[in-house]
Amino acid sequence: MAWRGWAQRGWGCGQAWAPPAGSRGCEELTAALAPPRLLGRRFNFFIQQKCGFRKAPRKVEPRRSDTGTSEAYKRSALIPHVEETVFYPSPYPVRTLIKPFFFTVGFTGCAFGSAAIWQYESLKSRVQSYFDGIKADWLDSIRPQKEGDFRKEINKWWNNLSDGQRTVTGIIAANVFVFCLWRVPSLQRTMIRYFTSNPASKVLCSPMLLSTFSHFSLFHMAANMYVLWSFSSSIVNILGQEQFMAVYLSAGVISNFVSYVCKVATGRYGPSLGASGAIMTVLAAVCTKIPDGRLAIIFLPMFTFTAGNALKAIIAMDTAGMILGWKFFDHAAHLGGALFGIWYITYGHELIWKNREPLVKIWHEMRTNGPKKGGGSK
């Protein structure tokens, strides 16, 4: 009885050393220490469990690029559900920024170059449009008018819009179209691949532009389009239609590149989408150009504040969100868009748009001279 008690106390506390299972040490230890009458079923089972203990091997799971970041984006209702979407982060994250950087520079240059040519063509056609307008007004005066003509009402509504509102109507229509595509279940993978920007995705460049027109949440799209519509008249009056389109498209790409840099630097990979970065550029440009303008919140129209103070508050909030890792918005894209808008109004207009003359001259010579007939020289 004394032997049995000692065995149960000593071995039961786990103080004895147990060699690996399958070795002869367990059998020799059992035979040497335990008398035959003590090798009962219960004690045998206990010894075998101690000798046969093995640490469970650690299960190695395949790495996913959204590991540790998917939860950060699941909390936001502004982006699609990407729990089952596998991304592939590069083992050298900084290298993933090379192609987006050159795409950003190249696209921005093409946007402003195209805007300069567009402005040239617009100015060239205005004289002809003026005479065509006079002829059209004369025909309308002698043509019998139709009552309740739907097309006439649409034309009347369109003509009553400001230049800025007519300019952003196409942008709003494109955003609504892409929003409808998100509602098609069979297009979900394609939409996530090309209409959300993520430095861990295999497609890096085209989503930087396409995601600017992409909204998954109706509230997100409605809020962005309302702000764009509200500031459209002011920004087009400041920049003009052509320059505004170049700034808006470039701002979408630049803000996404800033988001890429922040995600690579922090390791918080995840999809982003929305026109907020480009709209922040519009907002910052107007607030920088007209800092004393009065603004108000749509739900609280009784509280007004200056545009300069609003811009400072927005920059402070997005800076804090980027540093503290707030996960509801892409604060890096917001901040990048705002800083680009401030820079362009302060310096960019002089550095870029005022120096478009050489390109316009080249285009003018190409349009005026054209290809030489007969292939000969004068």
From TrEMBL:
<dbReference type="InterPro" id="IPR035952">
    <property type="entry name" value="Rhomboid-like_sf"/>
</dbReference>
<comment type="similarity">
    <text>Belongs to the peptidase S54 family.</text>
</comment>
<dbReference type="GO" id="GO:0006465">
    <property type="term" value="P:signal peptide processing"/>
</dbReference>
<dbReference type="InterPro" id="IPR022764">
    <property type="entry name" value="Peptidase_S54_rhomboid_dom"/>
</dbReference>
<feature type="transmembrane region" description="Helical">
    <location>
        <begin position="101"/>
        <end position="120"/>
    </location>
</feature>
<dbReference type="GO" id="GO:0004252">
    <property type="term" value="F:serine-type endopeptidase activity"/>
</dbReference>
<feature type="transmembrane region" description="Helical">
    <location>
        <begin position="164"/>
        <end position="182"/>
    </location>
</feature>
<feature type="transmembrane region" description="Helical">
    <location>
        <begin position="243"/>
        <end position="261"/>
    </location>
</feature>
<keyword id="KW-0496">Mitochondrion</keyword>
<comment type="subunit">
    <text>Interacts with PSEN1 and PSEN2. Binds OPA1.</text>
</comment>
<feature type="transmembrane region" description="Helical">
    <location>
        <begin position="297"/>
        <end position="316"/>
    </location>
</feature>
<keyword id="KW-0378">Hydrolase</keyword>
<dbReference type="InterPro" id="IPR050925">
    <property type="entry name" value="Rhomboid_protease_S54"/>
</dbReference>
<keyword id="KW-1133">Transmembrane helix</keyword>
<keyword id="KW-0809">Transit peptide</keyword>
<dbReference type="Pfam" id="PF01694">
    <property type="entry name" value="Rhomboid"/>
</dbReference>
<feature type="transmembrane region" description="Helical">
    <location>
        <begin position="203"/>
        <end position="223"/>
    </location>
</feature>
<keyword id="KW-0812">Transmembrane</keyword>
<feature type="transmembrane region" description="Helical">
    <location>
        <begin position="328"/>
        <end position="346"/>
    </location>
</feature>
<keyword id="KW-0999">Mitochondrion inner membrane</keyword>
<feature type="domain" description="Peptidase S54 rhomboid">
    <location>
        <begin position="208"/>
        <end position="348"/>
    </location>
</feature>
<protein>
    <recommendedName>
        <fullName>Presenilin-associated rhomboid-like protein, mitochondrial</fullName>
        <ecNumber>3.4.21.105</ecNumber>
    </recommendedName>
</protein>
<keyword id="KW-0472">Membrane</keyword>
<dbReference type="GO" id="GO:0005743">
    <property type="term" value="C:mitochondrial inner membrane"/>
</dbReference>
